[in-house]
Inverse folding.
């Protein structure tokens, strides 16, 4: 059996060249249209997810702005300023502060909540001289200083600072 015999048995009509070309063109056009619809649908879904993310971020930022506006409104009152100053350890002029400390606490510092103890003067240590001096080279003349004058040189000195 040849091809035409099989086609007659299966009752498949023979197609001409024009019909075959038409079917191929139709299949190509249908494939291109399907690809375009799929790409458009994918872009739409992607843009929708971005819109949802931006709207969520926008709502979060709107809540933050409202919170900051309430904080600004509260900070403009004198009671808020006084409360913040007291949290930082400030007291109003003429007020007396009484601290109740447990017996295990050390001595009370004067001058504020976290002020250091200032009863002792602060001194800087003086460097000790080396046991054997090493020979030094002769310094070159300093510009602007005559040969008979000594150039100023720094020397370590003890400094005592007393903080009231």
């Amino acid at each position: 059996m040849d091809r035409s015999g099989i086609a007659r048995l299966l009752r498949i009509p023979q197609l001409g060249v024009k019909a075959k070309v038409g079917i191929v063109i139709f299949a190509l056009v249908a494939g291109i249209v399907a690809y375009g619809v799929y790409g458009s649908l994918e872009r739409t879904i992607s843009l929708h997810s971005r819109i949802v993310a931006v709207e969520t971020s926008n709502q979060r930022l709107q809540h933050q702005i409202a919170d900051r506006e309430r904080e600004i409104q509260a900070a403009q009152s004198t009671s808020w300023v006084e409360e913040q100053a007291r949290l930082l350890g400030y007291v109003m002029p003429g007020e007396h502060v009484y601290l109740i400390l447990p017996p295990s606490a050390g001595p009370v510092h004067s001058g504020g909540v976290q002020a250091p103890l200032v009863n002792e003067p602060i001194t800087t240590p003086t460097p000790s001289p080396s046991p054997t001096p090493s020979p030094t080279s002769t310094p070159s003349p300093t510009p602007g200083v005559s040969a008979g004058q000594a150039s100023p040189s720094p020397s370590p000195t003890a400094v005592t600072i007393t903080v009231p």
Summary: The chain has a mean pLDDT of 75. The longest strand covers residues 122-123. Residues 135 and 163 are 42 Å apart (CA to CA).
